[in-house]
Write a sequence for this structure.
């Protein structure tokens, strides 16, 4: 805008139009026009502070102001959003803008002025705010984009190793660690090691929106991973993720990642590492060099800046080191177990089909249902064939089955009678292993819940008379349909061998007496 106040001030000091034009960088025609209009409207120097250039413009050119109100201002925010769509350009948006002006009865700007208005708005909207970081206030974390190859000494194949980077924005003091993967356990351990390296904890923790740390981050709510929340609670810090697709929210981490990629990963690009441990040692050495490099625009280096300016403002480390834990939601299987990915662990059988929360640490597996811990196991790192089971988690019949032994069955049979002892002894010895007869012994033992001891003993005596290989099915039939002792004795005596007739024809007596030919 033309500096109308300066024109009137210099004119009052008797400067000519050429001198005024050079001083305010305007044309002589403009100077002449302003002096003429000011004289006509009785405006002269000195002027009060309330007479700004905008107000002078409205007083000198009221007709221009009325005409300007006829124009419809473009919606620059809408234009900026639409330009992000595929195939949309300013020409298309200007055409749509003119159509809107026609519908509203307003005058549109021409294409060139339309573009100038948008570009001016876009340039202002890109303005950034310089944030002054307080000492001990925050730690920014991220994974570096580059990797370091680890070579197998036998096959020669390479696998990538990933670089974790943490930085304190105030002093720019950095920590870096090499990991074999970017899974949750390594992500949490790197935070623990970073706090130990800094020998303190900042007030805030600023990560990116990676899945191992942040479950959901929208305009309305932020949901932090449960394991990550546990870490923050242990160290007394607060997690504040960056906005989605807004790397400037943690610009120091982004800058340090780039810096570390150059002075650590790129510096080691010509070295060959045959183990992750060797690569970790090399990265740790490069980290010390990185923190010792002098600043370009101020005295000292990152390490000195941290020790002098920030160390005393850090929160102290907790008495006990944090043990990383992995949380997962699992449905209890039919064998009333959950898994840590390697082995199965039991939970109370009445939770079959329920959704439970499983917390896995290096040495333990804990199961929670509705916030209450229902099971805890010592974690086994070797693959086992059978689940790790606690007896109290099992149903009564399953628990009894595990407690069965040959001596238990024999002692029970001894309380019933000698024939029952013989039958149980046969069941236990009929197979290659006693366990093969457990099922028959259990069935016989269950009969004691329905029949008295005398009935069971008599059924065992009778089946031993009938057969040298008693079966649980035969005993069951005898218990359901008992045979009287008198009838059994007569049948037994009739079954004694008799002298057979030499004739061909057999009489009724032969059939009545049960003779067998």
């Amino acid at each position: 805008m033309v500096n109308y106040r300066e024109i009137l001030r210099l004119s009052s000091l008797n400067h000519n139009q050429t001198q005024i034009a050079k001083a305010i960088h305007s044309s002589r025609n403009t100077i002449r026009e302003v002096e003429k209009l000011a004289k006509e409207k009785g405006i002269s120097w000195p002027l009060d502070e309330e007479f700004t250039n905008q107000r002078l413009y409205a007083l000198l050119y009221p007709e221009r102001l009325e005409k300007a109100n006829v124009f419809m201002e473009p919606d620059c925010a809408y234009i900026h959003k639409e330009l992000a769509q595929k195939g949309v350009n300013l020409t298309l948006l200007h055409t749509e803008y003119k159509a809107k002006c026609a519908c509203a009865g307003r005058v549109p700007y021409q294409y060139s002025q339309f573009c100038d208005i948008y570009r001016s708005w876009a340039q202002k909207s890109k303005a950034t705010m310089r944030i002054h970081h307080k000492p001990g206030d925050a730690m920014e974390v991220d994974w570096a984009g580059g990797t370091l190859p680890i070579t197998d000494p036998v096959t020669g194949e390479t696998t990538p190793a990933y670089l974790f980077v943490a930085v304190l924005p105030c002093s720019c003091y950095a920590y870096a660690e090499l990991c074999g993967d970017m899974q949750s356990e390594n992500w949490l351990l790197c935070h623990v090691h970073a706090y130990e390296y800094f020998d303190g904890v900042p007030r805030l923790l600023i990560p990116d929106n990676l899945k191992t740390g942040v479950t959901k981050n929208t305009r309305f709510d932020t949901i932090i991973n449960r394991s990550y929340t546990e870490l923050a609670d242990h160290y007394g810090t607060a997690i504040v993720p960056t906005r989605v697709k807004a790397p400037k929210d943690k610009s120091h981490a982004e800058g340090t990642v780039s810096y570390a990629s150059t002075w650590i990963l790129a510096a080691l690009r010509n070295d060959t590492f045959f183990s992750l441990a060797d690569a970790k040692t090399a990265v740790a050495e490069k980290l010390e060099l990185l923190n010792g490099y002098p600043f370009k625009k101020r005295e000292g280096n990152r390490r000195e800046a941290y020790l002098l300016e920030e160390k005393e403002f850090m929160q102290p480390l907790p008495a006990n080191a944090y043990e990383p834990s992995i949380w997962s939601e699992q449905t209890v299987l039919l064998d009333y177990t959950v898994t840590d990915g390697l082995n199965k662990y039991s939970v109370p059988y009445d939770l079959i089909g329920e959704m439970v929360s499983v917390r896995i640490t290096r040495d333990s597996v804990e199961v929670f249902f509705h916030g209450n811990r229902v099971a805890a196991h010592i974690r086994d790192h070797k693959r086992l064939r059978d689940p790790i089971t606690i007896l109290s988690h099992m149903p009564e019949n399953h628990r009894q089955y595990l407690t069965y032994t040959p001596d238990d069955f024999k002692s029970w049979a001894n309380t019933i009678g000698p024939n029952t002892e013989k039958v149980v002894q046969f069941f236990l010895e009929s197979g290659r292993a006693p366990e093969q007869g457990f099922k028959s012994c259990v069935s016989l033992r269950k009969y004691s819940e329905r029949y008295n001891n005398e009935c069971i003993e008599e059924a065992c005596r009778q089946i031993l008379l009938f057969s040298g290989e008693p079966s649980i099915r035969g005993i069951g039939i005898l218990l359901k349909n008992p045979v009287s002792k008198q009838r059994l004795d007569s049948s037994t005596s009739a079954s004694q061998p008799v002298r057979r007739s030499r004739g061909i024809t057999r009489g009724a007596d032969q059939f009545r007496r049960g003779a067998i030919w």
Remarks:
- Residues 404-483 form one domain.
- Residues 492-503 have pLDDT under 50 and may be disordered.
- The chain is about 45% helix and 15% strand.
- The radius of gyration is 46 Å.
